[in-house]
Design goal:
This protein is mainly β. The protein folds into 2 domains: 88 residues, no CATH class; 130 residues, Sandwich (lipopolysaccharide transport protein A fold). It has no helices and 18 strands. It has a 6-stranded antiparallel beta barrel. β2 and β3 form a beta hairpin. It is elongated and about 65 Å long.
Length: 240
C-alpha cells in the first residue's frame, strides 16, 4: 500500500498514523490496483507493524477498474479483506449501481466474493443506453450479492422485495415490463443479464406492454440514479 498526502503523522509506539490534505491510498495489485481519496486517512497497526484497519473519512471515493464507489466514511479490515461503506454509500460494478444504508464488501484473492446491502437496499441498471430512460431495478430491506470472477451471479433479497425488469428478446426487441413484489426473492444472472427471478411468499407479479405500464410503476420508491458522480478514472476520486 502507498499512502500520500500533504500532512501526516506516525505514532509508532501507539500503533497508528494519519494522513490528511489530499490524502490518497493506493492498494497496489499486479492486475488491478485500487485508488482511494478522502479528507483524512487513519491507519491502525498491529504489534508486528502490519496494517489492521484503515479508516477513511469524509468524502471518500475510490476507483478500481471492476468496482468504483463513494460514501462519507469507509473502514477496510485487512485481516479478513472486508470493506465497510457508511453514510449514503453508492457502489458501481459493470452496469449496476448499488446503494443502501451501509454496504459490506468481502474480497477473496483480491476479487469480490460477496456484497451485502444492509437496509434500504437498491440495485439499478440502465436497460436502454440510447434513450437512457428505462431502468431495471431491484429493491428490498437487505440484499446479498454473490460473485464469480468479479461478476454478480446471484442476488438474495430479504424483506419487502420488489423488482422492475424490461424483458427483451435475445436480439433486443422489447417484449414488455415485468413487475414483481414478494416477501423475499432470489435473482440469478448470467453475463450481467437477469435470467431467472424467483419470488418467495406473498407473490404478486405482472407483465405489462410498455405502453400500458403505469407511470408510478416505472420507478420504485426512492429511486436515485447517481451515474454522474461515478468515478470513471482514477483522477475522478478527487471530484466530489
Amino acid at each position: 500500500m502507498l499512502i500520500t498526502g500533504e500532512v501526516g503523522e506516525f505514532y509508532k509506539n501507539d500503533g497508528f498514523a494519519y494522513v490528511t490534505d489530499s490524502a490518497t491510498a493506493v492498494m497496489i495489485e499486479k492486475e488491478d490496483s485500487l485508488f482511494m481519496h478522502a479528507d483524512t486517512l487513519w491507519i491502525r497497526f498491529d504489534d508486528d507493524d502490519k496494517i489492521e484497519f484503515m479508516f477513511a473519512y469524509h468524502k471518500t471515493k475510490f476507483f478500481r477498474k471492476d468496482m468504483q464507489g463513494m460514501c462519507d466514511s469507509l473502514v477496510y479490515k485487512f485481516n479478513d479483506s472486508t470493506i465497510y461503506l457508511y453514510k449514503q454509500p453508492f457502489l458501481w460494478s459493470d452496469e449496476s449501481q448499488l446503494s443502501a444504508d451501509s454496504i459490506r464488501i468481502t474480497l477473496k484473492d483480491n476479487n469480490i466474493d460477496t456484497l451485502s446491502l444492509i437496509n434500504s437496499a437498491f440495485i439499478i441498471s440502465m436497460d436502454d443506453t440510447i434513450s437512457r430512460n428505462t431502468f431495471n431495478q431491484i429493491k428490498g430491506k437487505s440484499m446479498v450479492g454473490h460473485f464469480k470472477d468479479n461478476k454478480m451471479v446471484k442476488v438474495n433479497i430479504f424483506g419487502n422485495a420488489e423488482s422492475v425488469f424490461y424483458v427483451r428478446e435475445e436480439k433486443g426487441p422489447l417484449i414488455g415490463v415485468n413487475t414483481t413484489t414478494s416477501s423475499d426473492m432470489n435473482i440469478y444472472l448470467e453475463n450481467n443479464e437477469v435470467k431467472v427471478i424467483s419470488p418467495i411468499r406473498s407473490v404478486e407479479a405482472n407483465m405489462y406492454p410498455v405502453s400500458e405500464l403505469p407511470e408510478e410503476k416505472r420507478r420504485l420508491k426512492n429511486f436515485t440514479w447517481n451515474e454522474d458522480r461515478r468515478p470513471r478514472k482514477k483522477t475522478d476520486i478527487y471530484i466530489w
